[in-house]
């Protein structure tokens, strides 16, 4: 009887070196994908991969033909040994889930470990915009300041918060805002009334949310459903005193429509961690507006989150190659075909998660 091959995992980089430390003692061949090497060398590595920790869109943006290293139909077709692919964080727009499912490839993300960092960043945007902290800082540095009353801000206490997407990040944001006594509106088609009641939030349609909210927080993933979710009509429906904040993905909102709303006074301001083009060009017109606070997609980048994500990433890969169901599987319909493919390539059949494991994955 032939020995099972050692599974090969290809990664571009870890959020923290601890991932490499964990996987070093596992029976897994870990290989780094060098984005600066030739495409020929890169494909030689990828075509032998059983698992791929996918490079981020920002990582590949400055590399010629960098998008080829994202998991689209071409990569799926070319890398016929692939069994599983994982994104670095909660977002998974770098992976074509349908193409992977058709090919028997499991798709996972790392939702959860970075939620605290992103939720705190989102709350930081709310406080900054309401209290006009960045605006005041800019004015102070320009000097002389003049009348301080022109920098008068507002408070969060008693305001209405609208959260689009009540996942790990949106849910944690709701908890963080509890001390402010805010009314919380939520738009999420995958949340039921019982869950909403348990979280102390009110489920509404997007139209009602944007009309009533003083702060609109977008924390949903980028999918076919959410692409272009916020456009001119949604910004026009918001209060002139309201703020738009997003830590999701740039294509969820229309940047030109947002710019128009901010420039015309249709909304009071915006806190933006994500953009259509990343890395962000310094001539992006949104950066010229005083009522915009912007960060370069760093909401989830903290020392603690980077380590937590790396540990979760490495642990999930261990689970995958041990033949167990990964804890953050995004395409569960793939499981029967995935098991057949896994058995054909690695020589043994994965087992489905037990009821106890399934329960722990949902917590």
Automatic annotation (TrEMBL):
This is Putative D-3-phosphoglycerate dehydrogenase [Bradyrhizobium oligotrophicum S58]. Belongs to the D-isomer specific 2-hydroxyacid dehydrogenase family. It comes from the Bacteria. GO terms for biological process: amino acid biosynthetic process. Keywords: Amino-acid biosynthesis, NAD, Oxidoreductase. Residues 123-299 form the D-isomer specific 2-hydroxyacid dehydrogenase NAD-binding domain. Residues 74-331 form the D-isomer specific 2-hydroxyacid dehydrogenase catalytic domain. It comes from Mycobacterium shimoidei. GO terms for molecular function: NAD binding; oxidoreductase activity, acting on the CH-OH group of donors, NAD or NADP as acceptor. InterPro entries: D-2-hydroxyacid_DH, D-isomer_2_OHA_DH_cat_dom, D-isomer_DH_CS1, D-isomer_DH_NAD-bd, NAD(P)-bd_dom_sf. CDD domains: PGDH_4.
